[in-house]
Amino acid sequence: MTSLSRRAFVTAATASLLAGCAGQENDRPETAHSTGTPAPSRSAGKAAPRTLARSVPVGLRIPAIGVDTPVMRLGLAADGSMQVPPIEAHDRAGWYRHSPTPGQVGPSVILGHVTVGAYGDGVFRHLAELRRGDRVVARLENGDRAEFAVTSVRTVAKADFPTGAVYGDVDRPELRLITCGGPRSGAGYLDNVIVFAAPASASP
Asked: DSSP class of residue 119?
């Protein structure tokens, strides 16, 4: 990742947008509902997973929850926070373009809505139902596929978003899927659902 991208990545990571959901509360403790702890960056005794050339993700499949979505590119909003996909009928996931592309070393970040206002359910409406070992496949612009397996699913209060665990450096390709969750507050949600995934070939 270039130094410019790294700065943009950290700036957005520390901003409190977190998948673009309203209803943030600053006094709730973290509530974690996990299907497993995030896996270490590399399992002892295992060969490093193959990395892929940088290529923008154009599609995302998560068979266990019926997701097969195009992926748009997201940058930074005017306030320095991470952009989120627009609220529209044909909801799509969005890849944060200052993060590594799927299959590159580092945490690639993809966001999606759990609901899209009057249009109903969002593309990540069932994200919290994923379990350890479920497969996630990113289709890349160059025709490659980056395949991951879920290692952990966490629901956390937005005020206690685990920035280091989500955006911190790792020594292999990893994937983070983020949406909203938990109880509603006004038009938004109080929590975030975060899926951690590692290369399928390296997962137990």
From this structure: G
How much is the pTM?
0.81
Higher pLDDT, 167 or 10: 167
Helix (H) or strand (E) holding 166: helix 163-167
Contact criterion met (CB below 8 Å) for 20 and 111: yes
Distance CA 86, CA 119 (A): 12
CA distance 116 to 100: 27
Boundaries of domain holding 182: 3-202
Residue 185: exposure state from Cβ atoms within 10 A (0-12, 13-18, ≥19): middle
pLDDT in tens, 99-121: 999 999 999 999 999 999 889 99
Please count the structural domains in the chain.
Answer: 1
Neighbours of 80 (CB within 10 A): 12
Structure tokens of 12?
Answer: 């957005």
